[in-house]
Structure formats: C-alpha cells, structure tokens
C-alpha cells in the first residue's frame, strides 16, 4: 500500500477481546464478526487497490443499537468506520486496524411512501435502484442513478453525494434528499431536515450530505420522488474525434438545452461496452454521445432535432434515435455496464472522478491522451459529459511491479489538471483516501483547517472515519477550540454564542 494511514493505537489493539465482548452485549447473536477469515470481505471497498482488515465488524439492526455502539466507542476512545454497501470508489469505507467497522447492511427497509407529498422514507441500506422499484408502479421514480445503482445504498449516496447519468437535469443526492435521522459520535440521535422542501435554520442537511462518514451515521433518509416523465427519448451519436463530441456537448448546453442525461465514451470504452452487452454501438467512431430528453412529447421531438443539428455541425458521422422504450433502455445499458466491461479488457483499472468546466472538455481530453502516452498506460474515458464530471479508467496490471504506482501518479496528474482548468477534485465519488493528499492542490491550509473545525463540532475526539479527506490530521485543540482551565475560559467578559 503506497497510502499512509493513521498508526493503529496499540492500547486499542490490546483491548480487542474487551471491545468484542462489549459490542456483543449491544448486538447479540451474529451481530459482531471477529474471526479473521470472516473479516476478509470487509478489508476493502470499491477502491480495491488498498486493503486493511478491520479490528472487528459490527452489524446493528436498529437505530438504538447504532446509538449504543457509538456511545460506547466514544466513551472508550475506540475509532469507528461506517460502511454501507462497500461500493465506494475513493476508499471512503477503507477500514483501520484499530477501528470498529460499523456495517449498515441490515438497514434495508423502505419505511414509508407518500405520493401526495412525493417523498419516500428509507433506511440507508436500501439500494438506490430499489427506491425506484418501490414507486415505479405508481408512476414515480428516484432521480439519482449512479451506474452502481443496483448495488450502492442510499446511505452511501448520502455520504458521497452521488449523482448518475441524470444528474445534469435532476441534480445529485443533495438535491433529492429532504431529511435524515443522524446518530452523533456520542450516541445522540438527531433529526436534520424533514419533509418540507426548504426547512428553516442552518443548512445542516447540506453539511451532512457529502460528509463521507466523518460527522455521524445516517440511519434514515427522506428522499424526493418524482413523477415519471410523459416521454423519454434518446440519441446515440457517433463522432470521428473525441474533440468533436466534446464541442457538441459545450454547444448543446450553450444553446440553452438541458438534457436529462448527456454521457460520453471514447473508443476503448465503446468497444468494451459493446462486447459486453451487444446493444449495437457503432464501432467505427472515436467517441460516442448518449443524449436523453424527457418531458412533453412535442418538446422532446423539437429538442432532439436541435441536438442532431448541433451534432452534425460538429462532425457527427452517425445519429440514431430511439424508437421505443426498449431501445432507449438498450442505449443506456452499455453506458451503465461500462465499468465492468472495461474490467474484461484489463486485469485492473483505476477509476478517477474529477470535474471540469464544460468549455475545457476538449483540451482536457487531449491532455489526458498525452498523459497516457507519458505513463505508458491505457485509458478508457467514460463520463457525465453534460456536467463535466470525468471518469477516466486507467488500465494497469497490479501484478506488474510498479504499474499501480504509475497508475496512481497518472490519476493524480489528471486530478491536478482538473483543478488547473478551473474544476474540482471530485464530482460524486468523494475524497476518501484516494484524493486526500491532493486536497492542498485545491484548498489552502486555512481552508482545510476551517473544514476540520466543522468536523470538530460534530466529532471532537476525531473517532469517526479518521485518515480520510484531510491530508494532515489535527487534534481539535490545535485548531483553536475554546480552552477551559480550572473552570474558567479566556476573556470571560466577552459574550459567547
């Protein structure tokens, strides 16, 4: 592992038997896993380049159990790493040797559906796709749809602020979550947000969504459900150059057209996806755009024609329009399966996640190609073109000495490039451990310390998911928290808020 994680606390390791016994008293039966062989499935998440078995795993089934576990760990100075489905691609659920891994897989129930208010209340272990399946018979759906939606959980979506192919028009998780039940590190259970669109007070929900398990554990989520559009049509557009496809994306948005989804794949990704799902993608093109319009039928027909005109002006060599729902779904099948498809053409791949201004798309793709030549590693580009969220898949073989290090360096250069052109380090996968040491590329030391002060407000002992997001850990006292000595604070005459 080239990544440096916090040193394990030897005192905690020596107390393992005591910790196991205490947590078994809270979650009896098979709720605590401490056998080394049975802990192997928890040693990594979707970023499989890094592995570390946890101290133990505990699988609560109720909010009361989560509260009791966190309260005990807080009182006994034991670190905790929350985990959902384990599909994180940034190492957000990477365990620590001295930390309890808190698995939320048993929280898999849909608690309430209210079609009048257009909301659903779900537990964090409910998969993203299951949310839509539960309401689709009534003509509704849940908008965020990551490619891993068949497996990723709502709780993980909240942690990483996940998006998906339709986030261009309908937003990411933060735009589709109205409230949550949240357990603090000391065991206190609080409710943030609710069923209303915009609750009064501080936007604590905006803080929680995307907090990557650093602030607390979500045990219930209230999500927005939307009526299914009257019409949904898709275009499959092939280009002889990646640059032409990138310019088509920029010109479409500049024309005031906001598609429901706008995805792009380059030649390696196209061939891998077509070989995997056989949906009829053109194989004689260097780039493929999938563009979907939804809404009123007449409007969709008009805008599809406008996009076709823009595409042809940018050198499109093939344009295919879906004729029915089955064909529209087929167009998306290859894109949704692109990641596993690429896994068939390379022993390993490293999936990046950076976001750039759309107007710089063409330039960035050219420079990624140059970096591929520099590092001697292939790359397949699959990304949410409409909102500039890139997912380059760096192809490597972990069994070849040095290739993982080259892949990491290649990926770091891509992310630096994203920041250089005015973008950000992550669009939806989160920072986790993957981008942690690149945070100073985007934030100043003052910025990072201010972010850590926010964590201190929720988790003053820094017990939740340590080693993630922040490149340099500080104790909360080092960040200027109020100092109390002998029961007195500094400058007692000043008002405190």
Automatic annotation (TrEMBL):
Transmembrane annotation, as ranges: none
SUPFAM superfamilies per the UniProt record, alphabetical: FAD-binding/transporter-associated domain-like, FAD-linked oxidases, C-terminal domain
Chain ranges of the FAD-binding PCMH-type domain: 50-228
Entry's EC annotation: 1.1.3.15
Leader sequence segment: none
Name of one Pfam family that matches: FAD_binding_4
InterPro entries noted in UniProt: FAD-bd_oxidored_4_C (IPR004113), FAD-bd_PCMH (IPR016166), FAD-bd_PCMH-like_sf (IPR036318), FAD-bd_PCMH_sub1 (IPR016167), FAD-bd_PCMH_sub2 (IPR016169), FAD-linked_Oxase-like_C (IPR016164), FAD-linked_OxidoTrans_Type4 (IPR051914), Oxid_FAD_bind_N (IPR006094)
Keywords: FAD, Flavoprotein, Oxidoreductase
Top-level EC class as recorded in UniProt: oxidoreductase
Cofactor: FAD
Keyword Flavoprotein assigned: yes
Molecular function (Gene Ontology), one example: FAD binding
PANTHER family according to UniProt: GLYCOLATE OXIDASE SUBUNIT GLCD
Protein name: Glycolate oxidase
Organism ancestry: Bacteria, Pseudomonadati, Pseudomonadota, Alphaproteobacteria, Sphingomonadales
């Amino acid at each position: 592992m080239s990544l440096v994680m916090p040193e394990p606390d030897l005192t905690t390791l020596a107390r393992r038997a005591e910790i196991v016994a205490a947590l078994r008293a809270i979650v009896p039966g098979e709720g605590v896993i401490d056998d080394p062989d049975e802990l192997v499935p928890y040693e990594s998440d979707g970023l499989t380049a890094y592995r570390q078995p946890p101290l133990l795993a505990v699988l609560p089934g109720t909010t009361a159990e989560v509260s009791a576990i966190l309260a005990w760990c807080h009182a006994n100075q034991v670190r905790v790493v929350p985990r959902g489905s384990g599909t994180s691609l940034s190492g957000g659920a990477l365990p620590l040797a001295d930390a309890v891994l808190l698995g939320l897989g048993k929280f898999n129930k849909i608690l309430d559906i209210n079609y009048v208010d257009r909301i659903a209340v779900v537990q964090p272990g409910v998969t993203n796709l299951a949310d839509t399946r539960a309401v689709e018979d009534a003509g509704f759906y849940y908008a965020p749809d990551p490619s891993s939606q068949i497996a990723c959980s709502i709780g993980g979506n909240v942690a990483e602020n996940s998006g998906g192919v339709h986030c261009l028009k309908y937003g990411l998780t933060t735009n589709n979550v109205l409230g949550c039940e949240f357990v603090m590190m000391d065991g206190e259970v609080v409710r943030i947000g609710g069923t209303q669109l915009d609750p009064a007070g501080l936007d604590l929900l905006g803080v929680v969504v995307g907090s990557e398990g650093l602030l607390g554990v979500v045990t219930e989520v209230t999500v927005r459900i939307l009526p299914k559009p009257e019409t949904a049509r898709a275009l499959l557009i092939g280009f002889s150059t990646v640059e032409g496809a990138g310019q088509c994306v920029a010109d479409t948005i500049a024309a005031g057209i906001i598609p429901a989804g706008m995805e792009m794949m380059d030649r390696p990704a196209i061939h891998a996806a077509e070989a995997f799902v056989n949906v009829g993608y053109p194989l004689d093109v260097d780039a493929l755009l999938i563009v979907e319009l939804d809404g009123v039928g007449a409007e969709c027909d008009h805008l599809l024609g406008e996009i076709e005109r823009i595409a042809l002006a940018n050198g499109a060599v093939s344009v295919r329009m879906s004729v029915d729902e089955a064909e529209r779904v087929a167009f998306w099948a290859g894109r949704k399966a692109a990641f596993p498809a690429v896994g068939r053409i390379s022993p390993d791949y490293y999936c990046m996640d950076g976001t750039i201004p759309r107007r710089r798309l063409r330039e960035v793709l050219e420079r990624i190609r140059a970096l591929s030549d520099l590092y001697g590693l292939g790359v397949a580009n699959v990304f949410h073109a409409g909102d500039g969220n890139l997912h380059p898949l760096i192809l490597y073989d972990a069994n070849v000495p040095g290739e993982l290090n080259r892949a990491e360096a290649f990926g770091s250069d891509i992310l630096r490039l994203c920041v250089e052109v005015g973008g950000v380090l992550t669009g939806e996968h989160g920072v986790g451990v993957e981008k942690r040491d690149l945070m100073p590329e985007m934030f100043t030391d003052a910025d990072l310390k201010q972010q850590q002060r926010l964590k201190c407000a929720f988790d003053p002992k820094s017990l939740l998911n340590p080693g993630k997001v922040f490149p340099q850990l500080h104790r909360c006292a080092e960040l200027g928290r109020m100092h109390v000595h002998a029961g007195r604070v500094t400058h007692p005459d000043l008002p405190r808020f």
